[in-house]
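Quick illustration for those who missed Monday's session on complexes.
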Amino acid sequence: MQIKISASILSADSTQLGNEIKRVEQAGVDLIHIDVMDGHFVPNITMGPFIVEGIKKITNVPLDIHLMIENPDKYVESFTQKTDKDDILTFHIEATDDPLSVINLIKNRGLKAGIAINPDTQGQVVEKLLGAIDMLLVMTVYPGFSGQAFKKYVCEKIKKLREIAPENLDIEVDGGIKPETIADAASAGANVFAAATSIFGKDDYKDAIEALRKEANENSYQFMKSGGSL
Ligand code: DX5
Ligand code: ZN
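Prediction with zinc ion bound:
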């Protein structure tokens, strides 16, 4: 599976957002991770559709939009005004009773659909949806803030989900990803890595991204499909 690094702009200098995005783009990042928080689903408020539209104007790097909001179905349209087929819109399984209809709404808007799952949510909850999505985002911290410590126990869930997922499904991890923790997530089966602090907290973004990519590549998951279910 292709290893992809997704720069979470939650830790970027917000007064220099355009420049920060240019810098990670030049540093070779694969995705721009945008954390959308509503103050209800998570105890923090961040960015909305207006910022997503602005970012779309200044970069060709695909967007990895992580919705941490209640009622995601109501906001799919406003977050997809300027997106295209390479962008991913991800919502939380805990935030809706009808995930399949949200997936369809997103796909009908012409972009990729992702589902996110919190650290303590059982993998079974997403099992039947794995064939319908383009990406599964497994949280390795409780969503809400950057700079938290990686929860290693989540790797067991990643492993089980990777074993039953379609082979081409991207599995992203998000929270506490740094060169010291990425190997655990990669060997469990993740291939997309969101990182805020370990990129924007460094002086040299290229070095930071390369350090993550190197560790992930060297420890990437080896496919041995056994089939079955969780
Ligand atoms: C947390 C966000 C993450 C966060 C990651 O709720 O979804 O994307 O920005 O930050 P770090 O990489 O610092 O853990
Ligand atoms: Zn995120």
